[in-house]
């Protein structure tokens, strides 16, 4: 497990990380979401040992990576948001170079490089110059390069940007395979539907502060409590309205034909009680439930709330 | 072999990569060609000029040998001066601009590997260029008076100057973000080292001639050109325009023994300074790979936090 505790970082006078906490379970995929400049890359660079934290702790399976940063090379694999390729090297040479850099012996470097290229479906371009490849292929080479050292923790900064839909689907499949192999993966991306598909847990960061951290399954239920309760009836609409009005948890009602929107403060149990009451009173209900937010809605809601809060604080 | 010693003495992947890329670039071929062409043209012009003297006056002018050898030595130095700072100054910044430095640093156990690989590749390039000129240099054997060992010494001293200027270049490359600024800084630093130490020596020598100060050419220990100027004048047993300029001989107190010691000391000083600059470069490109820097940084952060609270 990767555990980041109270991570702080300042650039000059600007506090870019204001005590970040996050936990990435072994073998899970953690989506790291935030606007540009929120502090995602800074956090990732600290985890990969490229940047010093001012204070805090980064622990991976009990090892403090900030104190034993030499171990980072063995534990962490990093795919930044750029390719980092040498145009005058062939793909296989490029892979071998990194294999040797990661401490793989010269005898094994070529085999390992070929294996990784095969895994990424790039064996047919092994003798081509990296410069001649498409953007998507370069991206896959970067991933193959990172996997050479067989890292336990993968830190991926915007890895799917610029990939075509087919490559993105394959990439998501690869990440799921890797997590099934027990690798922990932190992935940042602006393509939120992709993240909601593959991630087990999610962290939403804004202005150096973690706004939300939790399981992907729970993100919409945790945040959508303020969504109105939607009800659609086909008979006895007035009876339905009467039942709602009798409930002390209903704050306001908006009616549009047979559709009723209720600002309802109750939990799942109170919702079920309301539904039972309506059915008992002869109301025929075809839809009953709150609108489930997707990750984009949750992200927008949280960051907007944070913006309002900081505006209020400033005033 | 593990750690730094392994990086130094065993295969360095960054060095291997540099060599592969260099071998494919026209840069090395052009450099060897241009350098040897310049050297050959100058040498043959001087050689045939002195041969003309033989046919017209029936006498061989030995000052031709002195001029030719001196000029060849300074051309070799000039090429190293022109090439090495620019290549080394672009080495780390080039990786930064290509955005490959971070990936290298995450994967490698020590940033020293990056610095040493880059440095070794630059020095190898310089040695290839220098050794390619040996056939042209050997024309001085026609006259007699210069031995093979003299040529070996000459190449050794020029290599030393290359190592010194190369480490300055690598240091500038680790400090700067852009290659252009690193190159400007590297050339400025090398020029300053040559000129400032010469001016300082001039100043000390004048004080010395007035009996105020016994400097023993101390400032020149840092001058990358001084060992060469001394060696050439020593080998030919006559001073030349540059050795006179750099050493500013205002008094005769300097004995041969003292000067031999000076040469040895300057080799030690320049080698040590090169090592320090390379280590500093490794610290600068990723301070976190050095335990003492990392601990100091964390302590500083914690102290700042504690003060705030």
What would you say this structure looks like, in words?
The complex is a heterodimer of chains A (315) and B (309). In chain A, the strands form three sheets. Chain A has a six-stranded mixed β-sheet with strand order 6-7-8-3-9-10, sandwiched between helices. Chain A has a four-stranded antiparallel β-sheet with strand order 2-1-4-5, covered by helices on one side. In chain A, strands 12-13-11-14 form a four-stranded antiparallel β-sheet, covered by helices on one side. Chain A is an alpha/beta fold. The model of chain A has no long low-confidence stretch (mean pLDDT 86). Helices cover 39% and strands 28% of the residues of chain A. In chain A, helix 3 (91-101) packs across helix 4 and helix 4 packs across helix 5 (135-147). The relative contact order of chain A is 0.13. The radius of gyration of chain A is 25 Å and the shape is elongated. Chain B starts with a helix and ends with a helix. The model of chain B is unreliable at 4-9 (pLDDT under 50). Helix content of chain B is 79%, strand content 0%. With 309 residues, chain B is an all-alpha fold. The interface between A and B is large, with 37 and 34 residues.
């Amino acid at each position: 497990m990767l555990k980041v505790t109270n991570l702080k970082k300042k650039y000059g006078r600007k506090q870019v990380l204001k005590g970040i906490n996050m936990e990435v379970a072994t073998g899970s995929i953690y989506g790291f979401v935030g606007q540009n400049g929120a502090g995602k890359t800074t956090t990732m660079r600290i985890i990969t040992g490229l940047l010093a934290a001012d204070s805090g702790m980064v622990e991976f399976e009990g090892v403090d990576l900030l104190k034993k940063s030499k171990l980072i090379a063995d534990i962490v694999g990093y795919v930044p948001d750029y390719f980092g390729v040498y145009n005058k090297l062939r793909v296989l040479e490029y892979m071998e170079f990194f294999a040797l850099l990661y401490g793989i012996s010269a005898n094994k470097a070529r085999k390992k490089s070929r294996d990784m290229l095969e895994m990424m479906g790039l064996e047919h371009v092994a003798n081509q110059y990296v410069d001649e490849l498409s953007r998507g292929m370069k991206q896959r080479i970067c991933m193959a390069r990172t996997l050479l050292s067989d890292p336990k923790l993968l830190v991926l900064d915007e890895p799917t940007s610029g990939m075509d839909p087919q490559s993105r689907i394959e990439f998501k499949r690869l990440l799921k395979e890797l997590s099934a192999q027990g690798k922990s993966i932190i992935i940042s991306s602006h393509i939120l539907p992709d993240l909601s598909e593959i991630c087990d847990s999610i962290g939403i960061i804004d202005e150096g502060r973690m706004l939300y951290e939790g399981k992907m399954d729970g993100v919409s239920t945790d945040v959508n409590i303020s969504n109105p309760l939607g009800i659609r009836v086909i008979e006895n609409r007035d009876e339905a309205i009467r039942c709602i009005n009798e409930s002390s948890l209903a704050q306001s009602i908006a009616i549009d034909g047979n559709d009723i929107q209720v600002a309802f403060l109750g939990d799942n149990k109170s919702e079920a009680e309301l539904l039972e009451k309506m059915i008992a009173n002869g109301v025929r209900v075809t839809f009953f439930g709150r609108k489930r937010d997707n990750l984009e809605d949750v992200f927008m809601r949280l960051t907007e709330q944070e913006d309002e809060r900081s505006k209020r604080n400033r005033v | 072999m593990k750690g730094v010693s392994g990086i130094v003495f065993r295969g360095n992947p960054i060095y291997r990569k540099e060599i592969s890329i260099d071998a494919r670039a026209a840069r090395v071929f052009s450099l060897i060609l241009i350098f040897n062409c310049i050297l050959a043209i100058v040498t043959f012009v001087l050689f045939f000029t002195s041969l003309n003297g033989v046919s017209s006056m029936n006498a061989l002018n030995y000052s031709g040998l002195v001029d030719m050898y001196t000029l060849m030595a300074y051309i070799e130095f000039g090429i190293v001066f022109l090439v090495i700072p620019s290549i080394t100054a672009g080495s780390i910044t080039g990786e930064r601009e290509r955005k490959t430095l971070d990936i290298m640093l995450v994967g490698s156990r020590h940033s020293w590997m990056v610095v040493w690989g880059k440095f070794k590749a630059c020095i190898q390039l310089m040695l290839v260029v220098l050794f390619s000129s040996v056939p042209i240099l050997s024309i001085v054997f026609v006259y007699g008076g210069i031995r093979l060992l003299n040529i070996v010494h000459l190449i050794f001293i020029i290599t030393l100057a290359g190592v010194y200027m190369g480490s300055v270049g690598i240091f500038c490359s680790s400090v700067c973000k852009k290659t252009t600024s690193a190159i400007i800084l590297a050339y400025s630093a090398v020029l300053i080292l040559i000129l400032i130490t010469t001016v300082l020596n001039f100043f000390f020598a004048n004080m010395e001639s007035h009996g105020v100060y016994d400097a023993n050419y101390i400032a020149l220990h840092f001058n990358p050109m001084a060992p060469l100027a001394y060696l050439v004048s020593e080998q030919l047993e006559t001073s030349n325009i540059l050795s006179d300029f750099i050493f500013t001989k205002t008094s005769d107190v300097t004995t041969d023994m003292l000067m031999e010691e000076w040469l040895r000391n300057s080799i030690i000083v320049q080698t040590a300074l090169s090592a320090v600059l390379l280590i500093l470069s490794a610290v600068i490109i990723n301070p976190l790979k050095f335990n003492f820097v990392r601990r100091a940084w964390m302590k500083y952060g914690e102290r700042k936090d504690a003060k705030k609270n």
